[in-house]
Amino acid sequence: MANIKLDKLTKSYGDTEVLHHIDGQIEHGEFIVIVGPSGCGKSTLLRMVAGLETVTTGEVSIGDKMINDLEPADRDIAMVFQNYALYPHMSVEQNMAYGLKIRKLPKAEIKRRVEEAADILEIRDYLKRKPRQLSGGQRQRVAMGRAIVRDPQVFLFDEPLSNLDAKLRVQMRLEIRKLQRRLGVTSIYVTHDQVEAMTLGDRLMVLNGGYVEQFGTPIEVYEKPASIFVAGFIGSPSMNFVSATAANGVLTLSNGTTLATNTTAAGAVTVGIRPEHLFPNKDGVLKIEVDLPEKLGATTLVHGRISGAETAFTASLNGINAASTADVLSFDAPPEFLHIFDAETGKRIS
Amino acid sequence: MLKRVHFIKIMLPLLLVAPQIAVTIIFFMWPAGQALYQSFLIEDAFGLSSEFVWFENFELLFDDEIYLQTFWRTAVFSSLVAVLAMSIALVLAGFAERVIKGAGAYRTLLIWPYAVAPVLAGALWVFMFNPTLGIFPFLLEKINIDWNHYLNGGQAMGLVVAAAAWKQIAYNFLFYLAAMQSIPKSVIEAAAIDGASPMRRFWTITFPLVSPTTFFLLVINIVYAFFDTFGIIHAVTQGGPANATTILVYKVYNDGFVGLDLGGSAAQSVVLMFIVIVMTVVQFRYVEKKVEY
After folding, report:
1. What is the pLDDT of residue B287?
2. CA of A76: which chain B residue's CA is closest?
């Protein structure tokens, strides 16, 4: 069973600690996405699991076996790199067979596995080509192929789609997901793209500044973000934030608008509300002065400010909404869609 | 392609390239032409007159057993120098790539020998291996090796090869290090994850990927061994004992300035010139085209 356990993992370069007490339990066959802005330590964390970076303190285990001091080769993992890291002087076939040859598998077995992987990834026609003769998408497939022929316990993906164009990225994203489901191999996938994170992951580990902000299913992360950071990072367009004072189930925004809430929060708070959870209503309490409507076809994004408080606000309306040309729009903000965070710590309240 | 309209008048461009052309003509074309002309002349025994003999010098040369032996000796010498200098440099670069602490100092120190003039390098080795005074013969004696490169041709060859290779290692090291550093780190990491040991990674990934550099250095090193080792040989063995370390370029000097056979010496330098031309063509032809991945 290839479950992965991260136990109080830290990483320091000299005196600078870049990862702080990372804990996490990953079940067999689970697809975990580590997501965060650049420089948050997500790649470092992945590389520690791969054995390409040393562990400063704490423990990494795969299948209940501590692997801190194991060479990457002995960890039974396969990794797909951002730049694919194909061996440029070898053909596609040799690239895929390299790891198997080192493990001294019989020739016939190597051939069978390479061809099987090539069929799955539809790269059978390119087996004799060199990487430089392939397009970005094809190289990506070869990199995947090299990972799957090894039949490892764990797949590690380090932003594998970031070098592809937008359309190909969506397509490969689906394929990676399908492939992982089909093979049932425990996977860790690093990305800074929150859409990739939401669509791929069974669970997300949201990382910021070397801390785990939240570790949960995409829906949990979306519906109950644990901090202002997570709330702002996950979801597109980003959540709106406005400071407010809470007392007795009533939130008073800085411009005097009051919103009902069903939490028991009290004192200075930050209220978050997603653009898609603002419902247009002539009598709505939340008034927004429109600066710029963006018509995207399926939705219209209204960028503006809360009347009386110069806080930027975005609302997402269905369809090409005529109302978006108005100067001031009114919205309902139902209490179940309000996210309340402690103004000081940024942590979610209730 | 640049368009012709960039320069309407012809004078300015000519003026701009004139210094380079002048240098080329005065220092390269003219001496080369002189050598070519000399090679068609035979001087009388007293050096008072010379006779134009067309290719007689070349005929004499290629009938000369000693010259053909020198050819063979030069081939052995250059291959030994090139292989030794390149393989040691490759290994050192391989290690230097892995060094993290003090990498700068380590690399700088490895580059120093390149700054040593050939004659000085030769002098160093002469002192170290002097049969009566040197430290190495003294040490070698303890393991029952009688070192005397003044008498033993094989030892003399070994010594000049070592001295010549030692000087070239620094140069090769620089190129190999640069080539290795340009290999994406992730490729090596991918190989590590694929289960390759450091040794295997080096031979199956790093070495093939630096092959363009290897080919380039091979040509450079052979040219070096052919021509630039004169100073070392002159300082260490003077081509001896009994011609055991006389390579082509040393024979050119010896026959011309010691033996005073100017025509024969010039003919030899024309042959050398031809060899350089061939090597240069090979280098230009294949360095960028053939060795690719």
Report:
1. 64
2. B193
Judged by DSSP in three states, A242 sits in strand
CA distance A231 to A350: 14
pLDDT of residue A221: 93
User: What are the extents of the domains in chain A?
Assistant: 4-230, 237-342
Could you write out the DSSP letters of every residue in A26-94? E-TT-EEEEE-STTSSHHHHHHHHHTSS--SEEEEEETTEE-TTS-GGGG-EEEE-TT----TTS-HHH
Give me the percent of chain B exceeding a pLDDT of 70.
95
- Residue to mutate among A92, A96, A98, with most B CBs inside 10 A, is A98
Question: B215 to chain A, minimum CA–CA distance in Å?
Answer: 16
What pTM was computed for the model? 0.79
User: How many other β-carbons are positioned within 10 Å of the β-carbon of residue A282?
Assistant: 7
Residue B4 has pLDDT above 70, yes or no: no
Q: Which two tokens stand for residue B245?
A: 């370390």
| Phi, psi (deg, nearest 5) at residue B238 | 50, 35
What CATH number does the domain located at B56-286 have? Answer: 1.10.3720.10
Q: By 3-state DSSP, what share of chain B in percent is helix, strand and coil, each rounded to 5?
A: 75, 0, 25
Q: What span, in angstroms and rounded, lies between the C-alpha atoms of A66 and B147? A: 58
Q: Is this complex scored with an ipTM above 0.95?
A: no
pLDDT digits (tens, 9 = 90+) for A262-281: 777 788 899 999 999 988 88
**In this complex, is the C-beta atom of A149 within 8 Å of any C-beta atom belonging to chain B?**
no
Give the single-character DSSP code of A155. E
Q: What's the CATH number for A4-230?
A: 3.40.50.300
Going by pLDDT thresholds of 50, 70 and 90, the confidence category of residue A32 is: very high
Alpha-carbon distance values, A171 to A84, A190, A234 (Å): 17, 18, 21
- Confidence band of B1 (pLDDT split at 50, 70, 90): very low
Question: Which member of B190, B200, B208 has the closest CB to residue A81?
Answer: B190
Distance CA B253, CA A189 (A): 68
pLDDT digits (tens, 9 = 90+) for A222-256: 999 999 999 999 988 899 998 888 888 888 888 88
